[in-house]
Design brief:
Length: about 170
């Protein structure tokens, strides 16, 4: 069985969010919802059922040039957050030999920055998807409660707070 807008089979390493109007499930990274913010969403309606919801409009509308500047500003805030430190570079293959066997879609902030600078992010959901991928990979590879998994959760909480402000800016210009 396939899920989400991306029509991929179930993957235990990913966070999913269910629509309240239809029986469909979506990867948080595909619809721009971070796991840490999902608990605070009273009623998630997917892009098919409610394309004009605040989340769907902000996360799935094409980013304009001025919007990208806001995303770059958010990225600088993420880099400035102390919780981003372990995720700034790709995971070292020498010190984490099994990481690339376990994690099929590695992501790090250096790669995000390169993609951001070359204009690879068309939607806010694309950018948030890569940030989510960093956190999901950490959760999947590292046992819960370890220092690095706690750091990933703290980073995600930081991003949730900042992206709420960014979404408001994007919606104000629509």
């Amino acid at each position: 069985e396939v899920y989400c807008l991306c029509q991929q089979p179930y993957d235990e390493s990913r966070f999913y969010i269910g629509c309240e109007k239809c029986p469909e499930w979506f990867h948080g990274r595909c619809v721009g919802i971070l796991q840490a913010e999902a608990e605070g969403i009273e009623k998630f309606e997917c892009p098919r059922c409610n394309p004009d919801s605040r989340f769907n409009l902000a996360n799935l509308s094409k980013l304009r040039l001025q919007d990208l500047e806001h995303v770059k500003k958010l990225f600088k805030q993420i880099l400035g957050c102390k919780h981003s430190l372990p995720f700034r570079k790709p995971v070292d293959k020498k010190t984490n030999k099994k990481y690339y066997d376990v994690v099929k879609e590695p992501m790090d902030l250096e790669t995000v920055e390169k993609k951001l600078n070359r204009g690879a992010y068309v939607l806010l959901a694309d950018f948030l998807g890569d940030i989510t991928r960093i956190v999901e990979n950490c959760r999947y590879y590292n046992p819960p409660g370890t220092p690095v998994s706690k750091t990933a959760e703290n980073l995600e909480t930081f991003v949730v707070q900042k992206v709420a402000i960014l979404r408001e800016k994007l919606l104000a210009k629509k």
